[in-house]
């Protein structure tokens, strides 16, 4: 990676939590952060699959551990925060990665409120719940970083463009959940602007994972890079932005 004054390229000594980290982008973000020296907690809702993922990374010499965390379960979120507090007393990096596409695609007029509610539970309410639970720990870190995994599919500007890539893509539940997540990102950045905590949204591109039946044209390594970059922003780095590998993405 090129030298960049806005970026701390190493993460030695930092404690990171990545939600939804047993597979896909979350697992790769965890791997890349641990590779840079961070101690990474893999937030996982299935302890068995989580331990397997953590064991595989740990076998390569990385400092990782699985942490039970279902972002839609208030008790699970509280227990995870309590455990991080007990073990480390602070959290340097939170990557809100856990997300679902939901079962619904089709025109908005065919969607039910429950279709939206299901996706919002994880992609929006889950992020707010986890962020609020972890914020006291992030405030205790010298340079707390929050990264929310967003999607250009939720960018109002990109969707409104006449030649939009998303012209024929109809996924109101998923897309509007990411639009809401973008606002959530801005709202926390505003609240935290006079603190050391930075909050940004990462857009990984169209990545081949289970979420899209492996149809994406980018690899997880490529898709994870922007989240890792935002997680390792130096003190001069931005807050309240949405970014992909090429820079800011319009809201
Ligand atoms: P995957 O479907 O491959 O993985 C999703 C992960 O989220 C899994 O680990 C899953 O756990 C976890 N998860 C889902 N619900 C919960 C929950 N309630 N609590 C905890 N963990 C949960 O998706 P991707 O890796 O592709 O996506 C990761 C993020 O990146 C998502 O937020 C997605 O919206 C975003 N993104 C992805 C793009 C892509 O092209 N792939 C493009 C733009 C954004 P489990 O194994 O238990 O189901």
TrEMBL record:
The keyword Chaperone does not apply. Gene3D superfamilies: NAD(P)-binding Rossmann-like Domain. InterPro entries: CBR1-like (IPR045313), NAD(P)-bd_dom_sf (IPR036291), SDR_fam (IPR002347). One of its GO terms (molecular function) is oxidoreductase activity, acting on the CH-OH group of donors, NAD or NADP as acceptor. SUPFAM superfamilies: NAD(P)-binding Rossmann-fold domains (SSF51735). Keywords: NADP, Oxidoreductase. PANTHER family: (+)-NEOMENTHOL DEHYDROGENASE, SHORT-CHAIN DEHYDROGENASE_REDUCTASE. Belongs to the short-chain dehydrogenases/reductases (SDR) family. This is FlsQ2. It comes from Micromonospora rosaria.
């Amino acid at each position: 990676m090129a030298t960049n004054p806005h970026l701390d390229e190493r993460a030695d000594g930092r404690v990171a939590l990545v939600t939804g980290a047993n597979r896909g982008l979350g697992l790769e973000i965890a791997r890349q952060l641990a590779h840079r020296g961070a101690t990474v907690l893999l937030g996982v809702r299935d302890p068995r699959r989580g331990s397997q993922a953590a064991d595989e990374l740990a076998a390569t010499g990385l400092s990782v551990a699985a942490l039970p965390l279902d972002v839609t379960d208030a008790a699970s979120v509280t227990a995870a925060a309590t455990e991080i507090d007990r073990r480390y007393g602070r959290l340097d990096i939170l990557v809100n990665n856990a997300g679902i596409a939901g079962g619904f695609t089709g025109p908005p007029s065919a969607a039910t409120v429950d279709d939206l509610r299901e996706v919002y539970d994880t992609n929006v309410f889950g992020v707010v719940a986890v962020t609020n639970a972890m914020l006291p720990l992030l405030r205790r870190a010298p340079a707390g970083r929050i990264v929310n995994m967003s999607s250009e599919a939720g960018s109002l500007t990109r969707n409104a463009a006449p030649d939009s890539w998303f012209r024929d893509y109809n996924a109101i539940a998923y897309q509007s959940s990411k639009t809401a997540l973008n606002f959530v990102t801005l709202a926390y950045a505003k609240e935290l602007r006079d603190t050391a905590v930075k909050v940004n949204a990462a857009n990984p591109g169209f990545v081949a994972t289970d979420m899209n039946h492996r149809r994406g044209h980018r690899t997880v390594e490529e898709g994870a890079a922007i989240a890792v970059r935002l997680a390792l922003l130096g003190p001069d780095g931005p807050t309240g932005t949405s970014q992909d590998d090429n820079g800011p993405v319009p809201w």
